[in-house]
Amino acid sequence: MIKAKRRKELLRKIIIYSGLILFALFVLVPFAIMLISSFKHKEETIGSFTWWPKMGFTLQGYINAFEKVASSTSIVEGFFNTLWIIIPPTVLGLLTSTLAAYAFAKMRFRGKNVMFGLLIATMMVPGIATLVPSYIIWDYLGVTVNAPFVPLMIPGMFGAAACVFFMRQAIYAIPDSVIEASRIDGIGPFGCFVRIVLPLVKPALLSQGVLGFVGGYNDYFGPLIYLKSDYQTLQIAVSVFSDRYSGDWPSILAANIVAIIPTVLIYIFVQKYFIEGITAGGEKG
Amino acid sequence: MKQKRRLRKEEVQGIVFANIPLLGFCLFGLIPLLLSLYLCFNTFKGLRLHTAKFVGFENFVEIFQDELFWQSLGNTWFVLLATVTALILSIVISALIATNVRGAKGFKAIYFVPYVCSMVAITFMWKWIYDYNYGMLNTTLMDWGWISEPIDWLGSAEFYRVAMFILLVWSSTGFNIILLTAALIGVPRELHEAAEIDGAGEVKRFFKITLPLISPTIFYLLVTGLIGSLQEFTRFQVMTPDGGPGYQGMTVVFYLYKQLFNASGGSDLGVASAMGWIIAVLITIVTVLNFRMQRKWVNYD
């Protein structure tokens, strides 16, 4: 009897773990193929696929990936363009969202509920409806020709409803007495925001910041629409490079690996904030 | 008096602070939206707004008569199928993780990796696996003797959807699993223990207790997945920039993008604006239906 039970328990464990391990392999094997192939000689990828390179490893793919190609953005330039385009809106947008969240959570003013309702309602408007008219407006203003990165930067600086929602939850957790104590010291609402609130919601800021950064870094649609070939973000640069090196798989895969390394590193080091930002966003739904 | 003035100043500050995001929406959301409402009833070539001419509902008629539009809208079904498959797979995997396995953190960390990687990189990775001549998939299947001729995964009408289906499922599970495992932690152990004493088996308990309790999360993922399916673009555009065999890889947003991209080539942006509205209305319908149906079959206790 006990033996049968133990055997059943063992069988259960085997099923559970083999399911999890098989799925982990399904997720990881493509990455392994990509990584190994990126170190192969080009000649070896023309011919039957082999798991292990018979001709040995080479860095040629990576050397090509970092090479500057005339009239298009290199991977390195693309990387710095991406940082320049996404860091200002990520940081500023986070601050304006948090400022709004602070006002909604801790300040007193008339019409608060109506304003918050309106803000949340904006989340219902699908961005796709504004794509074409936005492009026409930016083009009319001459921006698409003279400063095509502007449409990718400015709107985000005003903050986003979802971020306000998230930060408001975090600011609610600060006791009113802490806020009031600072007010007795004669600090104004903005001073209180900078000196008291911001330091206290650092973890929430980090999770929203990380999510925003990774989202912006990986964005493909926006830059594809607005930016020109001589000034591109990393994602487009990689895509253009891959088309140009069509057939040279080690170089293509090397360039794409270089492109995913920064976000994977961020994920490894601040995994906690990443997951928190995502689960908090999902639970409110 | 002084106190009162201070309060008044604070009220103004509060209103200003609270409304910066709303101001952003008005400038970059509402204004384009209103312009779009005007544009979708006009015809004009390229970006030459001054040539705009009122045509009533003609743009919409044109779109509804456009076979390629219907086909790209129809392709959403197959993206949605992949989304639902990924969701079911995620529920199974999350349920396995929730059985107190060792290394749960490690498994979750692995499953989440595709989510942080750029869609561009992921798509090129799979493009290499699917490569007709030298890809891992064809080579392996031929080595095993399952096929005698290589399969044209990305170029043939029969296999393109299979290839994209695998890619879509592969890259969509991580996000689901993170949310589902978080929801599963919230399922009280006592309920399970009580049901176990009553003699309910593990599988039965999963369907009768766990599933209803995590139904809000499942529903949320289903709705965001449906909205995401309607906006699918990057994976298809990168994999087959020409739209795939027989336009099987043409999504609505991809089609809209092509029109906008052709603006200098003289495509009618009035039609494109109308198309943007159609997609937006579809998404809004899904969102509203979500709120309606949520009350019916989601369990909030």
Protein chains sharing the most extensive interface = A-B, 96 and 96 residues
Number of domains of chain A: 2
Lateral strand order in the biggest sheet of chain B: 1-2
Ends distance of chain B: 50 Å
Question: H/E series of chain B, N to C?
Answer: HEEHHHHHHHHHHHH
Oligomer: heterodimer
Spell out the CATH superfamily of chain B: MetI-like
- Rg of chain B: 25 Å
What's the tally of helices of chain B? 13
Helical fraction of chain A: over 70%
Low-confidence stretches of chain A: none
Strand content of chain A: under 5%
- Provide the CATH architecture of chain B: Orthogonal Bundle
Could you name the ranges of chain B where pLDDT drops below 50 across 5 or more consecutive residues? none
Q: What is the count of β-strands of chain A? A: 0
Radius of gyration from the alpha-carbon trace of chain A, in angstroms: 25 Å
Broad structural category of chain A: mainly alpha
CATH superfamily of the largest domain in chain A: MetI-like
Largest sheet of chain B: 2 strands, antiparallel
